[in-house]
């Protein structure tokens, strides 16, 4: 004796997308990448290129999205996308140059048998952390809730809260900008420039190349030496060449001493040098301890000397 039972499995599909209500769905992932310089790139998981709204979504890049993480709270929705590095799309050189920083992202499903149908938008956001190797890359796509995770307001701290040349700082950056060329290349990747200033004058500043293979690239300076040797925080997309020209802007480490001695701008310093450190503030008075100020001594322990 046997019985036959028919089991009907239903899958909830997005409401309002007619082509996704059918039993067989012909869908393909697409993601549209819009860089801050206006360049638009498209990629798809389909085995053929898809042209939609004037953008060609290329299939040859090996695009493969991960599962989408979504929550009902204020957490950021994340999605990872992997693909191949190609000369006609995303290259390692462009990634090193920072051309994809804060690029806008749209990820959606499309009916590849009828691209005139409405698409199902999965995510909109910005490009987050990008890692890459010799042949491929992996990009983190952050949802719109990422904007609510940013710190707002001001925090009391010993160092300056603003950047050199900002409205609060008041320094006029063109007066702190110099032009020059590369006159020497070091074995460790650093290079020597013809612009000579005091030690650390350009440390934490920005150098922008105006000629050579890195023309248009910017990078923050890690260390500047008085003899002109310059070290960068990260390598550029191409090796620096002899004779490459550039513009370079003075840097500031955010210390009150630098603000006073180098820029004579202490009146606009946006920090609180008198704030005591965590160890001192969490300690308690103990006989013979160094947190007890003897009579006649300066009560401003470790305070900045303004004179």
Structural features:
single chain; 307 residues; mainly beta; Thrombin, subunit H; 2 domains; nine-stranded mixed β-sheet; six-stranded antiparallel β-barrel; 15 strands; 5% helix; globular
Could you please describe the fold and organization of this structure?
The protein contains three helices and 15 strands. It is mostly beta strands and 307 residues long. The chain folds into two domains: 18-149; 155-277, Beta Barrel (Thrombin, subunit H). The strands form two sheets. Strands 3-4-2-1-7-8-9-6-5 form a nine-stranded mixed beta sheet, with no helix packed on it. The radius of gyration is 28 Å and the shape is globular. The model is unreliable at 7-12 and 299-304 (pLDDT under 50).
Q: Strand sequence of the main sheet, in spatial order?
A: 3-4-2-1-7-8-9-6-5
Most strands sheet = 9 strands, mixed
Poorly predicted regions are 7-12, 299-304
Count of helices? 3
Average pLDDT taken over every residue: 79
Entry summary:
This protein has 3 helices and 15 strands.
Task: Chart the SSEs and their pairings.
Layout (H helix, E strand, L loop, with lengths): L26 E8 L5 E5 L5 E3 L2 E4 L5 E2 L12 E7 L7 H5 L7 E8 L8 E13 L3 E8 L33 E9 L5 E3 L12 E4 L8 E7 L4 E4 L12 E5 L6 H6 L16 H5 L25
Parallel strand pairs: 2-4
Antiparallel strand pairs: 1-2, 1-7, 3-4, 5-6, 6-9, 7-8, 8-9, 10-11, 10-15, 11-14, 12-13, 12-15, 13-14
């Amino acid at each position: 004796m046997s019985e036959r039972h028919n089991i009907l499995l239903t899958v909830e599909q997005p409401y309002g997308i007619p082509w996704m209500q059918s039993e067989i769905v012909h869908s393909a992932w697409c993601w549209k990448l819009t860089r801050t310089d206006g360049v638009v790139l498209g990629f798809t998981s389909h085995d053929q290129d898809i042209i939609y709204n004037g953008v060609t979504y290329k299939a040859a890049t090996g695009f493969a999205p991960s599962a989408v993480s979504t929550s009902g709270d204020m957490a950021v929705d994340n999605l990872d996308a992997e693909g191949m590095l190609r000369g006609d799309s995303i290259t390692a050189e462009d990634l090193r140059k920072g051309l994809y920083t804060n690029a806008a992202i749209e990820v959606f499903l499309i009916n590849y048998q009828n691209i005139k149908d409405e698409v199902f938008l999965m995510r909109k956001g910005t490009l987050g952390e990008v890692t890459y190797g010799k042949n491929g890359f992996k990009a983190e796509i952050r949802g719109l809730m990422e904007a609510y995770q940013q710190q707002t307001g001001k925090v009391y701290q010993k160092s300056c809260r603003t950047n050199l040349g900002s409205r609060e700082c008041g320094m006029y950056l063109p007066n702190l900008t110099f032009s020059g060329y590369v006159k020497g290349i070091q074995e460790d990747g650093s290079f020597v420039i013809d612009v000579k200033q005091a030690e650390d004058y350009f440390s934490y500043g920005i150098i922008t190349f105006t000629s050579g293979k890195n023309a248009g690239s910017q990078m923050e300076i890690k260390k500047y030496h008085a003899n002109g040797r310059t070290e960068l925080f990260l390598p550029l997309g191409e090796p620096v060449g002899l004779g490459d020209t550039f513009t370079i802007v003075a840097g500031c480490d955010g210390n009150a001493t630098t603000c006073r001695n180098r820029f004579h701008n202490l009146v606009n310093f946006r920090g609180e040098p008198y704030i005591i450190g965590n160890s001192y503030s969490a300690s308690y008075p103990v006989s013979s301890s160094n947190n007890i100020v003897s009579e006649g001594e300066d009560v401003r322990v470790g305070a900045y000397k303004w004179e």
